[in-house]
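Quick note —
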Amino acid sequence: MDLLQTIVDLIRFRTETGNAAEIAKAAEYIKHKFDGTAAKVEIFQTTASPVIFLRNCDTLDFDVIILGHIDVVPATDEMFEPIIKDGKMYGRGTLDMKSFAAVAMNSMEYAVLHNLPLKFGVILSTDEEKGSKSTESFMEAYPQISAKIVLDNDVGGDITKIVSKCKNPVFVKIIARGKEAHGSTPWDGIDANELLMHTWQNIRKIYPYYAADLPQPTDKWFDTVHFAKIEGGQVSNIISNYAEALLDFRLTENSSVENLEKNLQKCMADGVEYKIVSASTPVVMDENDPDILNYKRFAENIMGRQIEFEHIGGATDSRAFAVRGSTVIMHSGSGDGMHASGEYVEIESVKQIADIQIKFLEHLAKK
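Predicted structure written out below.
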């Protein structure tokens, strides 16, 4: 497989989450890349979005699974025509994460062409950027699926770091209900917007505000929240009787949803309530796990330098396997501009991830 050409081809598909036609074309492209090989390819249809399931075996108790996704956040037309310059590839999805979906495909091709005695699979979702409902449906359809090791390349940014911890994303809706009145007589109404802001201030007493233009915390491994979406009011001269906000909490493994709810209950102003929209689980791996250390050793040998462990606030689909007891190895290539107009990946780091995966798979096949 021509790895770079495969990346270019994938980026040219405008697979913005929800673009069913382009996602279907990309899925068929991936499927046909394995024509004539022993790989089994299924485009699993869900009510949300399809999942592309590759494997070299019939069973569902895998030795190794690679997780990824091929959907991307919206971008201009120009970003779907990748540009290679100074060792970097620019374009939507270069870092997040079509480059590494291509790496997973490359690893599968290698496994089937070399008949590796390893039960190996690749799962590529198509709606990760909006919650991975397709992955949830896939896991429900295959409740018996398991993997001893999961390779997760969706933690892009720095190939010199292996992620050992991810936080638990918890999304909360705050709903404020007031009483309508004319804007000139606020004493006749109850402003839902004000109730929402009072609650907001209460929450900030427990979960402080951080920003790029403020002092940075030395240790960033603590619970955070940002107000992702705020709505309230219809016209300027009416006191709002309804307002709501969507909050994005990121909890460490030292916290719990139950404790979050206790804090939220203390923060609610009269007329305000909260609802847990979704919650997951943090992914926390033992940095002394033998498989993780072996992977780290191969990575250091290929890169010619030491690799460190790090913790990140982002979430990952690998949590679905972490709760089933899988060892999750979170490692990706280097780049910048994820979800931004200047997104790029360092091409050498993509090639290195591909080499690391193959060496690690060969090692596991000999065990």
